[in-house]
Specification:
This is Acetylglutamate kinase. This protein has 287 residues and is of the alpha/beta class. It has a single domain (23-275), classed as 3-Layer(aba) Sandwich (Carbamate kinase). The chain contains ten helices and 16 strands. The longest helix has 22 residues, at 86-107. The protein is globular and about 45 Å long. The two termini are 15 Å apart. 49% of the residues are buried. The chain binds adenosine-5'-diphosphate and N-acetyl-L-glutamyl 5-phosphate (X2W). Adenosine-5'-diphosphate (ADP) binds next to loops. N-acetyl-L-glutamyl 5-phosphate (X2W) binds at residues 26-28, 56-58, 61, 78-79, 89, 93, 136, 161, 172-175, 226.
């Protein structure tokens, strides 16, 4: 046990991790992300890894919406966001959740700057083609300049997914999609941390999948609700040249350090060519 811990610490010291990394913390796990995650993120930031943290907050929006007499509704994992709901979404995500995370990161020595997709036009969106979703956008353009400016100044960007439309208005964007679009633009790996250990099928954790496997699982109905934008984000990151995308539990204290040490954790989605050579068990039992 001690040996495993030492090996993980050594791997972090040795730099066995990417130079740029997108980490998305889902609202379903945000309140329960263990200290070990923040300590690992702090080590990455200190080691000069260009880190982007994207956060969700779907649960917090639900709580506020219900407190105000509203009823949360979603289609295919995306929130139906009418004109009266978008200000609440922006207040909760870009205000409360974003700033709480920035303050929390400071406790671990991470100097973070909170921003939303609207800042520096980081994420430019177009209205989602499904009119029933209301003010929901899908990302059509990513400007990396705000991230690069923050990295150059030594800050870790912490991103709320609320973004700006081509019409200049605020749009609600799913946080997985925001993370996937940024990972695509950077060609960087993306870690999608949520409240389940990864993609489950018949109660089993699928530890490694190709994009083709993911599409087949989607078509077979195994992937539902909030898992749908996650796999879309993973596929988008890979399409941009990311070497991998992983979906794992943001509640597991060891998950991030294990991942960074190169261990099989969660569900890893790899490009087809790499997948066949991977040392990880394909579609088998994972952690
Ligand atoms: N095949 C699947 N394997 C695991 N989880 C799944 C699957 N299909 C749907 N889900 C659901 O996806 C949820 C995670 O998405 P979501 O609730 O949106 O989390 P987050 O807030 O982290 O984005 C899980 O809690 C689970 O209910
Ligand atoms: C359009 C859309 O679905 N937006 C999301 C944005 C927050 C989010 O994605 O939070 P999680 O990561 O916790 O799911 C929402 O309003 O819930």
């Amino acid at each position: 046990m001690v040996f495993v811990q030492e090996r993980k610490e050594q791997a972090l010291k040795d730099g066995v991790f990417p130079s740029t990394l997108v980490v998305k913390l889902g609202g379903s796990a945000l309140a329960e992300v263990p200290d070990s995650w923040f300590a690992a993120l702090a080590r990455l930031a200190r080691a000069g890894v260009r880190l982007v943290l994207v956060h969700g907050g779907g649960k917090a929006i639900d709580t506020w919406l219900e407190a105000l007499g509203g009823t949360p509704k979603s289609i295919g994992g995306l929130r139906v966001t009418d004109e009266s709901t978008i200000p609440l979404v922006e207040m909760v995500l870009s205000g409360l959740v974003n700033k709480e995370l920035v303050r929390h990161l400071a406790r671990f020595g991470i100097s973070a700057v909170g921003l939303s997709g609207a800042d520096g036009e980081l994420l430019k969106v177009r209205r989602h083609p499904n009119p029933s979703l209301g003010r929901v956008g899908h990302v059509v353009r990513v400007s990396l300049a705000p991230l690069e400016a923050l990295w150059a100044a030594g800050f870790v960007p912490v991103l709320s997914p609320v973004s700006v439309g081509e019409d200049g208005e605020a749009y609600n964007v799913n946080a997985d999609e925001a993370a996937g679009a940024i990972a695509e633009a950077l060609g960087a790996p993306v870690v999608l941390a949520t409240d389940v250990p990864g993609i489950l099928a018949g109660g089993r954790l699928l530890s490694e999948l190709t994009p083709e496997d993911v599409r087949a699982l989607g078509a077979s109905g195994v992937l539902k609700g909030g898992m749908l934008p996650k796999v879309e984000a993973a596929l988008r990151a890979l399409a941009g040249g990311a070497p991998w995308a992983v979906i794992l539990s943001g509640r597991d204290p060891d998950a991030l350090t294990a991942l960074l040490a190169g261990e099989a954790v969660g569900t890893r989605i790899l490009p087809e060519a790499v997948c066949s050579e991977s040392p990880y068990p394909k579609a088998g039992e994972g952690r």
